[in-house]
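Re: your question about Peptide methionine sulfoxide reductase MsrA

S., sorry for the slow reply, the queue was backed up all week. Below is exactly what I fed in.
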Amino acid sequence: MFLNRRTPELPTPEQALRGRPVPEFTVPSRHTVLGNPLVGPYPEGLEVADFALGCFWGAERKFWQTEGVWTTLVGYQGGYTENPTYEEACSGLTGHTEAVRVVFDPAVVSYEELLKLFWESHNPTQGFRQGNDVGTQYRSAVYTHSPAQAAAADASREAYQKVLTASGHKEITTEILPAEGRPFWPAEAYHQQYLDKNPGGYCGIGGTGVSCPIGVAPVEG
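Result:
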C-alpha cells in the first residue's frame, strides 16, 4: 500500500519498536461477509492457518471466498513489536508481516488446498515485496500451527519450486516457521474485510500464473 524506496531490511529485536502491553484499538466482533466471530476461541473441530502474501486487503478476500473457511481476519505477525499499529508495521521497525488468519473446517477444505491458494495468489520469489508494494511487511510467509502443517507447507514449497523453476521463475523466498512464539496481532477495524467495505479498493496481490500441485504431503492431526 506504500511504496518504500529505501532498501528493506529486517530490524533486530534490539532495533524493533517496543510496542505496548494492550492494543490501542478494538477489533470488530464479527466478519462482515461470513458473519462469524473474528477472534477466538473458535468452535471445536475448526483449525487455524496463518499466511502472509503481500498487502493483506486482497489476501484476506482470497480466503474468505473459499468454501469451508469459517472466518478470516488480518493482522501483524512474525516480528517483535507487541500490539503494533499499522503505521508502525509500515515503518519497517516491527519486523512483522501483513498476515491473514484463516479459520477453516478441515472436513470441507484441506490445509493443502489453502496452501495451493496461498502459493497461486502471489509471487513467492520476490523477497521483501509484492509487485509495487515494497517493504519487509510484504514478505511471503507461512506460520504453522502443528507438525502436520509444517510438513505440508515444506512439501508444498518444494513441489511449487519445481514447477516455478520449470517456468523460468526464481527461488522461493517464503519463510515457513512455527506460529508458536510468533503472536498474531489483529489489525485495526478498518483493515478487517477492507475490500468488502471498499469494493473498489486497492488490491496489490497477484500470482505467477503457475499452478501449484496439491496432494504433495499428507496432513494428519
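Residues 1-5, 216-221 have pLDDT under 50 and may be disordered. The chain has five helices and eight strands.

Happy to talk it through on Thursday.
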